[in-house]
Amino acid sequence: MHEDYMQHFSSEISEEIENYAIEEPLKFSRYIFTRREGKHQYGYCTHCGNEYKTVGLKHNEEAECPYCKSMCTVKSSGRGRKYMVDEALFEFYDKSLINPNIITAQEIRVTKDYRNSYKDPRTSYTIFARFIFEMGNSVMIERDCWGNGFHKTKSVHKNVIGYLIKLPYTFSRASIKKAVKDTPFRYSTWDSYTKSQSSMVKFFDLYSKYPGIEYLTKEGFEGLVIDKLQGAGTFSAVNWRANSIFKMLRVGKENLRELKNCKGKDDSLFLRLYQISQKDKSNLLVEDIDEIRDSWGMYFRELQSVHKYISLRKMAKYINQQYNKYKKQFYTKGSVLTTWRDYLADCETLEMNLKDEHVLYPKNLHVAHQSTISQVKVKANEKFNIEINKRAKNLEKYTFEYDELIIRAIGSVEELIKEGEVLHHCVGRYAERYAKGESRIFAIRKKDAIDKPYFTLELNGKDVIVQVHGKNNCNPGEDVKRFIEAFKSIKLIKKKDKVNIAISA
């Protein structure tokens, strides 16, 4: 099968390839080697082969050859050339040998070795990959790493790996111009992309699939094609398989006229926002779309999530309002959008009415989101909540007051979570253990601040205190220690033990 692909290519390195390699990829590999003969210095140009008398040329400086006018690097012939090997990679295009409508390309490494002789350096060529471009079909075959031949790849790509990445990489524009002549690729507008691309194989692969690229280019939307070539996000802004510019951009004639006059017309994100604005009847001005793209359009997934409920115009208005009013809570407009996305997801979980504008547009989004977070946590733990509530009632016998403090069992998952959040410790994770009876959790509060978490106490099944922690896991102060001793004496020491204590006394 691979032999069939090889029929498209010549088995020889052509004179055209050799000439291009010397004139472009290896243009940097031009030297003037100097030697001394008595008091005189002579220089030899490796590009044109002329030797001539020179004056004061120094090793590694730049100098122009008076014969071929090439800019060359000066090298002293008396110095070692142990590592003097120059390499470059390039693409060279041609017509298929068996089908005049097919173009081909080869990725070639050229090596120029000066180690043995600077007057007769050895130049060699290695073909790393071959490409066949036919409308509707592209094929890449690459040399395997063992040098045993070529194999077909899954996709067409610039075949640069390992240390080859650091080598100069070019492609022959002249060879492309000659190869595409009288083929379907002559309409591809390839020459519009030679400055933005280091390789053209991806372009011809793309054009073979989507010939509508010609329309985009001629209408001034090159940026969309470049985004696609470079693997950037295109936000599904272009229908690449369409056969007209209107269908490709999903716009009408009037819209196309307006787009062509926009500075950001060939930006994929701008185009997608423009399309959304038209489709949901927002009909935003171009400058408004510019502002959205620059401020929060890059959060496109979040934008899509919120857009399920709200038009782009209303989204922009609400985001601007929240950001301007609550800048301390929102670092950027993008953070407003992400918070809004999360808030609406919570609303769905809580089965809130998202057709109600008071739900969709809370006065303070940050505060509303904190509320839904708490509610979702509670709902997620409804099963535990029922069990904890039952356990709290069974633990009412442990309720105790002494001095200014009171202790009682925590009665719900919500209260347990709040205890952990306020005191910055991990008791919020104990919900399952508490619900299953593996642990008993109590809140110690001040009587004059009964709803404010102060200390948390854990008791095991044998009425032994496991731990008591306050804010940031701090240990009890004197007031809490006195309270705990009284609690242990009155509530935890069994009657039998109390009798024994009394007899001992």
Strand order of the largest sheet: 10-9-8-7-6-11
Report the end-to-end length measured between terminal Cα atoms.
102 Å
Q: Which structural class is indicated by helix and strand composition?
A: alpha+beta
- What share of residues is helical? 25-40%
Average predicted local confidence, pLDDT? 91
What gyration radius follows from the Cα positions, in whole Å?
38 Å
The tally of domains stands at 3
The parts where pLDDT drops under 50 for at least 5 residues are 498-505
Fraction in beta strands: 15-25%
- What's the β-strand tally? 16
- The rough form would be described as elongated
Number of helical elements: 20
Helices, strands, pairings?
Elements: H1 2-6, H2 15-23, E1 31-37, E2 40-45, E3 51-54, E4 62-64, E5 71-76, E6 85-95, E7 103-113, E8 122-134, E9 137-143, E10 150-152, E11 169-171, H3 173-180, H4 201-209, H5 213-218, H6 222-229, H7 245-249, H8 253-260, H9 268-279, H10 286-297, H11 300-307, H12 312-325, H13 333-349, H14 357-360, H15 365-380, H16 382-394, E12 400-402, E13 405-409, H17 413-423, H18 431-435, E14 440-446, E15 455-459, E16 465-469, H19 478-492, H20 495-504
Parallel strand pairs: 1-5, 6-11
Antiparallel strand pairs: 1-2, 2-3, 4-5, 6-7, 7-8, 8-9, 9-10, 12-13, 13-14, 14-15, 15-16
